[in-house]
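Complex 558.
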Amino acid sequence: MATYGDRWDAFIQNKAIFAALGLVTHGLLNNSEPDYKFYAIIPLWVQLFTFATLVEYFVGSASQSFLAAVFLVTSAAAAYFGTFIASVLIYRAFFHRLRKFPGPFLARLSKLYAVHVTLNGPYYEEIERLHREHGAFVRTGPRELSIADSDAIPLLNGPQARVIKGPWYDHSKHIEGAALHTTRDKAEHRMKRKDWDRALGASSLREYSPRINRHTTELISQLSSRIEKGEGDNLRMSDWMSFYSGDVIGDIGFSREFGMIREGKRAKLIQKLHDSMPAVSILYHLPWVIGLITRTGAEAGAKGLFEFMHWAREALKERKKVCALPSLNEPQEKDIMSFLLEEDDPDIPQDRNADARIIIVAGMDTTASTLTFLMYELCKNPDIQLKLREEVQRVAGERSFLDVDDLTNIQYLEDVVNETLRLHPAASSGVQRETPPEGLNVNGTYIPGKILTWMPMYTLHRSAAYFPQPLTFIPERWSSQPDLIQNKQAFMPFLTGPHKCVGWQLAIRELRSVTANMLLNFEIGFVDGDTGESVESEARDCFATISGPLDVRLRPLK
Ligand code: HEM
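Predicted structure with protoporphyrin IX containing FE bound:
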């Protein structure tokens, strides 16, 4: 009579059973989109493997040593995973509900394709190339579509849109809850958005004006002193733009002084965030990896993220302490957190820490990169620089500094800002949305349910159908040459609808303030022998676009 050991041996040596189990697993997981549950599934697999090895060693008789037991179980696992993976790939390539959409073959199989592209240059450039090759709908991942058709904008972003934010936004929710930006539930988002709208609405923005003016004044004065020290022939303008936007957002966000303009270097935390960008540009294609690392307790793997969380917690506590002084119930000047925190509540809700992080992440690099690209375009187009300077000087008269509130009506300044945002949108590849279970119909094209969509702003903004002469920097298209805009709806650097950037007006005010005052004080050009191309060629797509380095020559105006 067969013993338990014999039965086990027969089982573990039967590759067909494991191959069949691989197929069953694919069948079970296929409809549940399991990638974001890998943090639970992978440890389960590891436990099963360990259990099977121990059973083989102690109960089975086919292996003479522990190593042999490991080997036998590994060969069973190879049959299981080999079949499972082959089944997944065949399904994705030929039977998936997106099979009719064109795109690179490898992108059908895995998001590793996007990782490969990212390692070789900005992802959004490849997306634009793919749209030129395949048209408005491109399959960019196993269950992912990039849609470059302005008719899809209301369906994906409008107030009545039935899509929700995609699972990407959940990547670290389990640690500290969701920030405004990462809240997927529509009702919860509406609630949170009310406070944020007050924090960044017109009357609050006026209260923040003195802070913007202070930081812009400091920027101009620091750059002037660098010129005096003989450094004006080669200044890394991309760094200065990043110091500026970081100082502004720390200050307006939660009264945090980074002092980067003063020091002429990045604060430690900001430097670490910056250093993590290459990893972010890859992980944003594989968000389940972040969940896996953080949920399986491998904190070392996500050290940067945990440090940032710790920093944000401490920064909010410090702000609270200052506000708790009897003479100061609130910061002397209001900041964004004044609207998000209950000043009398001794505790800081966890999701406010997440909000503090989003203030830095959403408010710093987006603005810094836009400013850098704007300076780049002014260097590349000296005539436009001259024309804009004349406009600004007309408003300034004898003054060498213009307050941000004096800059609301300079049409050509608006034109230059818009044209920069058109050619260099900060969210170049778009934002992730998930279609409702019943799917969507875009212009007669049916998009199945539970599909992840992206609307690539870089591609839309560079479409000749929407913006004739799309690759030329022509600020006049926004005012005196309206024929150069065929479809204004396709311009959405800040998105549109209920999730439109809540900080867009703050960003515009920063852009106006820096641009106008730079032009009042300096002539700006590329460093001798340089064309500034690294600003585009070394840019990174990290969900937000991070510009490459820009070195400039600054000459003070007489
Ligand atoms: C040129 C600068 C900026 C650009 C181009 C920009 C662009 C965007 C875009 C495209 C989104 C939508 C993201 C998504 O749905 O995933 C967004 C959202 C957001 N932005 Fe900005 N942004 C800029 C500056 C700022 C600033 C200065 C702040 C200040 C705190 C800010 C705070 C936010 C927040 C909190 C959200 C989430 C809004 C929500 O989900 O309701 N952004 N931004």
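The chain has a mean pLDDT of 92.
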